[in-house]
Fold these 3 entries.
Entry 1:
Amino acid sequence: MSLPMQSEGFMSRLRQFDAYPKTLEDFRVKTFGGAAVTLVSGAIMLLLFVSELAYYLQGDVTQELFVDTSRGQKIRINLNVQFPHLPCSYLSIDAMDVSGEHQLDVDHHILKKRLDKDGNPLKEIPAERHTALGDDKPKEFLDAVMGKQGEKKEEEAATEQEKCGSCYGAETEQLKCCNNCEDVREAYRRKGWAFNNAIEISQCLKEGWSDKMKSQQNEGCQVYGYLEVNKVAGNFHFAPGKSFQQHHVHVHDLQPFGMKSFNLTHTVNRLSFGQDYPGIENPLDGVSQVDTAGSMMFQYFVKVVPTVYKKLSGKVINTNQYSATKHQRAIRISGPVTEQGLPGVFVLYDLSPMLVQITETRRSFMHFLTGVCAIIGGVFTGELGHIPCSCTSFLYASHSVQWLV
């Protein structure tokens, strides 16, 4: 037997395994119904392919729960709170925790923006120097006069700086001189004294402190920035008056303002514990509270959950998420110390012992390819593969019957 004959016999036996036998071109009939079903099948396959591709590119997120073993870290508290009826000069921010660390009247990394009664920011107008009309003196003469005045002002400023103003009995080793009203208030605060005699203090009279307080009574304040606190339970609060310790009690001095009530209406524009990550939700963002009784205490009880977010790029974000509940009640003011509490906005936070780890994941390319092949094969053979045959057969048979009739 020749080699070509053996090869032809092998190919003949191999063709017996063909699972997709072909019909002759003469027996194939293309119909309009078959074309329509093919187009619909192609559209369905395209839609499913786009959906599978979007799911592959978007990825997935998995969450796991662990015991938090980190210690000695700091938490950054980002805040942006607006008080439409409480002036910035009245407002102070304090932070304290269970470890005993106190941050009184915090001003580092915290900014205050004065607002008018409509909630618009007030612009500070710088002082301008004006000259009299018709002043035709030579420029050299004016420069000489201004130079002498400048030297005189510098001498007066140097002399004023050398002076050591009285702190009215509140001097300490750290603060021996009080050259302005704010220094006197700070000295009183460190001593734990109430500051209720501003009209008797020469520094305050010279600066017009009382008049300044009265002129700002109808203003509002926006407080924004961040606090750095220990990773332990604690609280921070916004309250009127300078704070100090009196008999191991945290007290705010409200007497200098001469007001019987304070409007603590506020809006929390933003409050977060740490860096933001994709999909984070801060439950207190956008919360507004109205002080209906005057001098109310607003309390937010926050449960902070340490969170680690791992991105596909390998970047790790150590942050926190939280849940919150709120409570409010009216306060009766009686002197520098209140009997029932302190009017203000308090955020009391506690830390969860559990840590949430969120990881971005993406399916492998082979998984995606398998899904695409399943879509194409399923539409063509599994589901819609029988529909073109049955539909076209029915349409072709009907067409043939019509011709026979």
Entry 2:
Amino acid sequence: SSGINAEYGDVTKLGDDVREQPVAIVTLYTAPTCSLCEEVKEELSLLRKTHKFRVESVNISEPGNASWRRLYKYDIPVLHLNGEYLCKHRLNSTLLLERLATAESDAA
């Protein structure tokens, strides 16, 4: 097991001639006993109702994730957007929404 769980948003197919827009990926680095991580998961779930992005959770305590554990063991929750560091300890929703808007305009 890679230690990555993905939650996918609704996908609407408009037709074969419409190019599907890539969906932004928010990666949440977490661990089972992290109460702040649970709060961030709830906040992300609410934001996903109005903004299009996918959430991937990486459990840093799993054996295959030792490098992430060394890097983030004192900082979880840590969030990345499309592979780039976004924030730690708490969700900075303003920054996330700004970066999502930038990612959408870059993809358009």
Entry 3:
Amino acid sequence: MDMKLSGFCSLFFIATSGVMLFSSASVNYSHTMILSTETANQGDSMTASCTIKSDSKVSIMVIWQKKTISEKKPVEIATNVFINADFRATNRYSGENVDNSTNTTSNVMFSLKITDLRSEDSGWFACKPVVSSFQSEEPKDFKLFTVLVPIQKIWWTSFNEEIPLPDGHTETIREGDNHTFGCHVNGSFPNAKVQVLLGDQDVTHLFEVNSDLKKSHGPKGLHPLYYRTDAISQSNIIGYHNMTKSLRCIAKLPDSDLSAETTINVNMTEYSPTFLCKDKMRAKLHETYFKLTCKVYANPSLKSVRFHWVSDNSNSTLDAGEKNNDLTTEMSTGDVKDEVVMVLTISRVTQQHFDREYIFDAQNDVKRVKHIIHLEQDKSVPITLSGGSLSLSLKKSLLLLLLYSVVCNLP
């Protein structure tokens, strides 16, 4: 196309747009852009309006521009009501204008409407005014618009990340196995926030969460977008205390009610001994038959139970049912499945029993586990040392009474 023909085409386009060219000096003008909404659901509509005003009678045009997350360089959508080819091909973009100009001023409102919204319509929108002899400025006030696309799929994996676990699935594991769990969320826009619950406890911090923006094929400014998010557990999060609880993964789009979730149950068939007892216990000096008690849970059953303590720089060990001076040990079956009760009884607590470490030792086919109890002295209410059938304090009272009686009966 030669220069003459090109110039003619440009003039023809402007004439058919209802715009006149002026070669006058720069004129003052202002423009305002408004989005009908900042977020909308997939399938809804959105309208952007741009009002351009000038105190002078000038020609006015507008160029609609858009930037996307994947493409930071602006793409032109339309000029005035004329939609560019790629956007026109969607049959979802349209434009119109309303001219409120007078004989001496210019005032035109341009509108860009998008119907049947999809993820590719998300981005930063702006209108670029063109006045007089193509006097224009690059837009600085791009406004973000987001189309909310529901989560397409959410699923759990365990061990083998290629095999999705159906909702409600029960996963059987053994303690010590590398049972990595993963929650996967696919197809949402924008990025969904993932939360993981073990029973009612939030354990999201035990998962490493990574998100990737995926871009499908399409023309510039119209690439379908979606996110893939993976939350992978970084430690063996299942133990005896939570082995009957469910793992629940919840994904939610920000600032919306769009969410999805999936749940699996975890059944631990074998686990190492787990102690349910205190780390510190308090006893009174001279207290009799004081018991240090621990409940132990194990599957398979315990095959070895021992009690250890250190005294006078020597280690002492007793099996269940044995006795050593003032210490007696015993083991009994608990009230619930896999429960065993270990008891170390001190017949009379003396000063030597304090500040010791009493070690409860239990072993099954999975692992050997020890639990340490520190015994401290409780000085709140001292116990009176008794001897024979009379306490020491009572003996002192009787002795004083006898002395008084003897003195008072002296001649």
